[in-house]
Sequence to fold (506 residues):
Amino acid sequence: MAAETGTPTTLTLKSNDDELFSVAESAAILSVTIRNMVEDGCAGGVIPLDNVDGKTLASVITYMNGISAIPADEEKKKSYRDKFLSDKDFETLADMVLAANYLNMSCLMDAVSAKIAQVMEKKSVGWVRRKFGIENDYTPEEEAAVKEEHKWTFEGVETDDDN
Amino acid sequence: MANPFIPDEILLDIFSRLPAKSVVRYRSLSKKWRTVLSTKHFVELHLARNPHQESFIFISSEHLTVHSIDKIEGAAAAVSRKIELPNKCLRVVGSCDGLVLLRNDEGGIFLLNPVTLQFASVLPASPRQALIHFKFGFGYDSSVDDYKIFRYYVRDLVIPGVFLDVYSVRGGFWKSVENPAYIPNHFEIGHGAFLNGAIHWLAKKPIELDYRIAAFDFAREVFDEILLPIGIDEDGFVLRYKLVVFDGCLCLVEYKMNSGTDVWIMKDYGVAESWTKYDFRGELTPLCYIHKGEDVLVSKSGSLHFYNLKERKSRGVVVDGGAVMLREGCMFAGSIVSPFADN
Fold:
């Protein structure tokens, strides 16, 4: 692999909306999907990433560069991830979790999933249905009964702010 | 959203990171999600992701009612939630994976999940049971994936001998342990402390007088002995000591004559040299670290306090606008584990 020769190798990644990005191979191979392509020798030209749009890919690359610049210190890596995700809204996080899944980046996947859980912790049932495309198949009577059964868990739920 | 909706498999993983209260609420999303969020696989995944005991359940000594504080960490003023139960419960034995073992003075034993509010009657109340019980323990046996309740009892007040029964929560039956090698201390106020797959008691061998720490291992169904710290004052041992689990470690609490408390923590389980002593001002029982380890939540004279380790001072925790008087209480982890036997 080129990384072992001492010369930093750069890869070119292409998003599904045809944006091109240059990224150091050492950072890009945080993605197992990309690493496999590099190892299989498919990374000579442009690497097409059909499931990731340019905006999300730019963000993922910022993360790749940021996290790979941190030495092996789990505490520091964790605080980088927290800071990196702190200002992201739900839609961006949802795009990132899909990208992290497609790129097979377990550390990012873990951090984004935890962040989404934190965002949705106090949300209403209606909010979660809308954001995750969950169809309500309860009859109104059934829904009222199931809510009544666990009434206290509806205490402290935020008012929806996305209407 | 530019992208399609998040696939179920990833969504399930996200749900497993939510507090138990949110998971229970999201069972109202749809019939499908109600089923998915109740499977054994999901319950276990959720438990593995949320193992921390951040909640507190207690019995108010004023009203004899059961209350829970959902998250005690950092709360300057906590709010409790009253839990209505079909049976009166006066004692909290302990908790494991979010299930709380409760009992009353009429001999009834109950399991409660304070989040899902599922309540299972393990043993109905009876006057005879009330007389013969004296010691309980509750924990998880990973070798058979089951929760177990331990009770020491005497057959009646005339026939000598102390007996030990183990109840399988999933199986719904009692099994007796023949000739238990150790008898727990009658006087000690605490219950069995569950840690590392074993229930720990301050106990003695039937013919001996000296008390020690006996650990009943679930998987092997035998007793092991845990060495006491070197240099503890064994005089009046059984009256002044209590075993608890604190910060994931076995912990021996010694109430000193001068109204201080020595808290011995076994940092490496089973390693006698690892017992470490911390002295606290006042007579208290440590419950958990809070405020990033600066304070310890303690129960003291029947109420909750934050004990500051640096200043060695405690201040009362405000619950529902005042100081709550506790009859008994324990920490628990919010989980969606069911207290019912498998059908």
Remarks:
- Strands of chain A lie at 10-14, 20-24, 46-48.
- The radius of gyration of chain A is 20 Å.
